[in-house]
Structure formats: structure tokens, C-alpha cells
Amino acid sequence: MKLVKAELFKIRSTSTWWVLGLITLALWAATLLTNWAGSSINAGVDPADQGLSPDQAEQIRVANEAVNVASNLYTSGQFFGVLMVMLLAAIVVTNEFFHQTATTTFLVTPRRTSVVLAKLIASTLLGIGFWLVTSLLNLIFVPLILNALDVGPQLGEPAIWRAIGLNGLAYVLWAVLGVGAGVLIRSQVGATIALSTGYVLGYFGASILFFLLTPRIGEWFSKLQVLVPPLASQLMVAGTELPGNPPRWVGAAVLIGYAAVAGGLGTWLMRRRDIA
Amino acid sequence: MTAGSEEIVVSHLTKHYKTLRAVDDLSFTVHSGRVTGFLGPNGAGKTTTLRMLLGLVAPTAGSATFGGVRYADLEQPIRHVGAVLEASSAHKGRTGLNHLRMICTAAGLPWEAADEALARVGLTPAAKRKFKGYSLGMKQRLGIAAALLGDPRVLILDEPANGLDPEGIRWMRDLLKTLAAEGRTVLVSSHLLGEMQQLADDVVIIAAGRLIRQGPVDEVLGSMAGTAHVRVRTPQVAELTAALSEHRATVTPLPDGALLVTGLDPAAVGHAAFANSVELHELTGERADLEQVFLQLTAGKAGIR
Ligand SMILES: Nc1ncnc2c1ncn2[C@@H]1O[C@H](COP(=O)(O)OP(=O)(O)O)[C@@H](O)[C@H]1O
Ligand SMILES: [Mg+2]
């Protein structure tokens, strides 16, 4: 417990966390505006449809869409938020090598597994913090947007709360991934660059790759998309249960798998490694 | 801790890096309550040995213990052993005080210990400044403050004088003397030997990862007695040289006009001069110094590895 406190103090006593926090806020605002714009277009189409054929079935479809639109809006900022949390978590580890504080840390606590565990817990708490702040902001601003779109706040829908909850799980899992990645890529700059480009390019690159290759290789290939971490996390949180898509829990399982491997490998490496 | 329990025993310690034997079957003992100089040329394996001692580097073979216990198995290690390894091991964006508080938190020590340690090394005025603005001397002081947080009985320092200006070196020496006078065991490594002679009670000399000599400073110097010599100055060079040659001493003229006499102690030189009515203007006994002993002992074994 005192080790977790120490790790949190380490984060708190330097400026990285609030710099990345501010970036997260800026990106959150940008994402929210983008999502709003996207939703306005969708919403703009729907009333026209509704006006053409105002029957019962169509209304249910629209209601369903409203929930989807809302859950997308309520989890705004996730894409970059988890990236920032992962970077912070990686830096929690790489800092120790970059500033050569690993020596001090392991002199104070020679039991290295405890140190890695403390880093995992501290990073997880940090992830939860980022999730709480963005979710709170979303809960404040999204109802305004939804009102502007003429759909209610949708807060009575369990699907919304499930999306928000799974969003939190994503923040936690990416924090764990970040710690593991930090141990693997000890270099501060290297880890930051590799993780951000890997995350962003992994997301778009993989989407494009699967889009291009699936028609040639076969439908089964597109199911492998879920193995790409950013896509898995997207599926887990926002995954609409479309016929072609694997169920959400697959996304969650994949991400938990990666987090477990990263955390375990990180701990194992840290125990063996010479601190010089 | 009971008396003697802080003895450091290094036993057959070995570390291989690929084909390089950085530390090679090294065994020595550091006695409690004494200052031990850990000497060796650059690349001798001092840092590697100290890091193995502290559980940071895994030995290929052998062991190192504090009072019979490995560092990693000590309860609250920093209350037993304080270590200063490199001057720059703090986060550049963190204040000195916060660096120490971080250690206190992790070790379960009260934050007041951080203030006390800062005061002890004279860093209180810079407590709230970030580490990146510290001079090398201040960084070194912060490192020592960190080592003192747990009020340990054993202190281990790796080349603490490195990069310090003469004033900083004197400060360091005085502090280490004070700490030793408080009864702490001090193990301090160096490749610069001038300081050690005034500071250390014992020396452990290594080269190329192997033990060369271990023992009290006087004994190690004494074992090299052949190198002791006497400086004399006289207007009657020829007479004195003849007189001393009868005693089978070697006399070498020095560029500054003095004579260097090897093979006799100052009293014998003085007596020979007196007996032959030779006038002396200077008579100085020069003991072999650690520097020379060290160079002789490690000659040919150092090399760049
Ligand atoms: N991590 C490492 N990998 C490979 N060689 C190393 C490593 N650390 C030290 N060495 C080598 O081991 C030898 C001993 O180094 P070191 O213990 O730092 O010596 P000293 O502190 O006495 O100057 C040197 O030749 C050094 O190059
Ligand atoms: Mg060294």
C-alpha cells in the first residue's frame, strides 16, 4: 500500500500527468465536437425518413439509434483518452530508467514484483481518474447536445450505463498495457513514439488492411480484427451488436488477455533485469 | 543491530558479461565500524561489485551479505544500508525535497526524515528547487541525503568524489569522517587514491575483477616498505653520497638539487651525515604513498577492457 502511495506521489510530484491531462481534455473536446457533428448529420437524415414513413417499426429503429448515438457521445474522448493513459502508464516505468531512479526505487524496495504491482495499481487508479473526469464532463455536456438533437438525455437506458462502465474498463486495461509496454520498451522516447504511432496507425491501418484484404481472403478473416488491441477496445465499448461483428465480450476478453500478458511479462522481465 | 552484525562479506562473487569477466571470484570482508576504501582502476569491476552487493545486478556466481543476510532479504533495507551510486539518479522535474519524500513514502518513513537529511547535507535552501537546476555537487549531496534517510549503520558510496571540485571533495571527506566517527561502517570506492589515504582504515584493492590486496592501510603500505625513501639537501653532495653508499643505500640526485635516498630510514641518514660532519639543509622521510603502491600493485592488470 505504501508503495502505491509512493508511485502516486511520484506521478503527482512531476508535471507529466497534468500535461497529458490537458492534452486529453483538448482531444476530448475535439472528439465531442466531431461526434456531435457526426450525430447531427445522422439525426438530420432521420426526421426526414420519419416524415416519409411514420410507422411504429421505424420509430423503434430511431429510438435504437438514439441510444447508439447517445452511448457514442457519452464515451467521447475514449480513443485518445486511453492512449494518454497508456502513455502515462508507460512513462511511470520508463521514467525510472530515463532518470535512473530505478536504482533508488529498487534499493528502497528490493522486492521487484511489489514495485511492478504498485505501478500497475497506481496506473490503474490514474486510468480510473481520467475515465471519471471525461465521463463526468460527458454527463454534463452530452445531454445538452442530445437536447439540441431533439432526443432526450437517454440516461434511463441501461445500454448507456453499460457503455460508460465498459469505457472505464478500457481505461484500466490500457493502463495495464502501458505498464507492460514500458517495461518492454525501456526508452522513454522510444516507448512514447512506438505506443502512439502503434495505437493510431494500428487502429486506422488495421481497419484499412482488413477492409482491403477481407474480400480476397474470406469473411472469416475480418473476424480477426478483434485481435488488434485498439479495435478490440472499440468493439468492447461502442460495439453495436451488428450481425458481422463478434460480440462485445470477445473484445473485452482479447483486451484483458493482452493486459494480462503485458503485466505478467513486464513483471517477469523486471525481476530478472540488471539495474545498471 | 547487534555489534558486528553489519559486517559485509563478499564471497566468490562473479559476474560475466558475455565473454568479459567483470568481477572474477572476488572475496573480501568489510569490518564494521571502519572506513574501507574499495580501490581499483577504471573498469576494475567496482561498480559491478557494489551493485551486486545491493541486489541490483544478479551475480553469475557467489554471494554478498550484510551480517549474513542478502540485501534483498533485509527487512526495510534502507534502515540498515544507505547507498550512493550515481550523482544523477533523481527525476529532473522533481524537487529535491520531493525526491526524498518519495523515498520516505515507499520506505514507510515519516516525511520529517526528508527535511532532516536535507539539513544534514546543507541542501535546505534548495529543497524546493527542481533537480535539473542542481549543480553536480548539489546532486551528490542529495544522493547522500537519500542514503541517510533511514539512519543506516552501513554506508556504501561509489566514487563519491567524481566530478566534485576541491571544496566539494573536502566537504565529502569531512562528512564521511563524521559519519565514520559515529560508528558507521563505510565502504567507499574510488580510482583516485590520494583521498583514501587520509580517509580509509582498510583498503580492498582490485584490478580486472580480481582481488589484489586487502588489509589495513598501514599494513598494505608497510608491505611495500622497499619503496620508502628519504629526501635530503646538502651543500656537500659528494661527501654525503660516499657516506651513504657505505650503508648500501641508493642515492639518486633530483632535478631540484636534492638527493633521494632509498634503503635507509631518516634517522639512519641523519646519523650518517652527523658522523661524517656533513651539513644538512633538509631531511624528509617520505613514506610510500597509496598512489604508488596502488600503481605498482595493479600495474599491467588494468588495461582497458
Ligand atoms: N551492463 C554491462 N554490460 C557489459 N559490460 C559491462 C556492463 N557493466 C559493466 N561492464 C563492464 O564490466 C567492467 C567493470 O565495470 P565497472 O564495474 O563499471 O568498473 P569500475 O566501476 O571499477 O570502473 C568494465 O569493463 C565494463 O565495461
Ligand atoms: Mg565505476
UniProtKB/TrEMBL annotation, chain A:
Protein name (record): ABC-2 family transporter protein
Segments passing through the bilayer: 16-37, 79-99, 120-146, 166-185, 192-213, 249-270
Top-rank taxon, per record: Bacteria
Keywords recorded for this protein, A-Z: Membrane, Transmembrane, Transmembrane helix
Gene source species: Actinoplanes nipponensis
UniProtKB/TrEMBL annotation, chain B:
Pfam family for this entry, one: ABC_tran
InterPro entries: AAA+_ATPase (IPR003593), ABC_transporter-like_ATP-bd (IPR003439), ABC_transporter-like_CS (IPR017871), P-loop_NTPase (IPR027417)
GO molecular function annotations of the record: ATP binding; ATP hydrolysis activity
Ranges for domain ABC transporter: 8-233
CDD domains: ABC_BcrA_bacitracin_resist
PANTHER family, A to Z: ABC TRANSPORTER, ATP-BINDING PROTEIN
Stated name of the protein: ABC transporter ATP-binding protein
Species this protein is from: Actinoplanes nipponensis
